[in-house]
Amino acid sequence: MKTRTTMRAVDLLKNKFGVSQLYKYDLIEDEQVVLTIFWHPLTIAERESIQAKSKTDDAGDFALGLMIEKALDEKGKRLFADGDKPTLRREINSSVLQEIQLEMLNSGAENKVEEAKAELKSED
After folding, report:
1. CA–CA distance, 12 with 121 (Å, rounded to integer)
2. Residue 89 maps to a domain
3. What angle, rounded to 10 degrees, do the helices at 59-70 and 44-54 form?
4. Which of 17, 25, 91, 123 could join 103 in a cystine, given CB atoms 3.0 to 4.6 angstroms apart?
C-alpha cells in the first residue's frame, strides 16, 4: 500500500510562492544590461506598509514605493533609499520606471501558478 503525503495548502503556497522566491530583471538599453534588479515576492504585509508610507491611493505612487522598497542588488541590498523618491519622480524617464515596476508586479505569476496546479494534480 502506497502512503500518500498530503501537503497542507499553506505549505504548498509557501513553497511555490513564498518570500524565498527570488526574481531577476535586466534593464537593457542598446543591447547592454544597464541595471540588474532582484526582488522577493510582494506580501500583503509589505503592500500595506508601502501603501501606508505613500499616504495616497495613487497606483503610480504605490508602484514607485514598491520599486524603492523591494529592488535589490545581487548581494541582497536595497538598490534605492526612501530619499531617492523625489529624484526618481522628477529626473528619470517614466517609461523606464514603469518597465521595472510592471516586471516586479507581474513577476513569475503565470509559470508559478501552473507549477502549483501540476503539483496538486500529481497528488491526486
Report:
1. 13
2. yes
3. 120
4. 25
83, amino acid identity? G
Which residue bears the cell 517614466?
Answer: 94
Rounded distance, CA 50 to CA 34, Å?
A: 26
pTM exceeds cut of 0.85 = no
Q: What is the average pLDDT across 27-56? A: 91
27 Cβ neighbours under 8 A, 6+ residues apart: 33, 34, 35, 36, 37, 96, 99, 100
Query: CA 114, CA 67: separation in Å to the nearest integer?
Result: 26
pLDDT by residue (tens digit) across 21-32?
889 999 999 999
User: Residue 17 domain-assigned?
Assistant: no
- Indicate the helix (H) or strand (E) that contains 25: strand 23-29
The cell for 40 is 522577493
For residue 112, how many other CB atoms are within 10 A of its CB? Answer: 14
Look at residue 26 and tell me if it is in a domain: yes
29 lies in some domain: yes
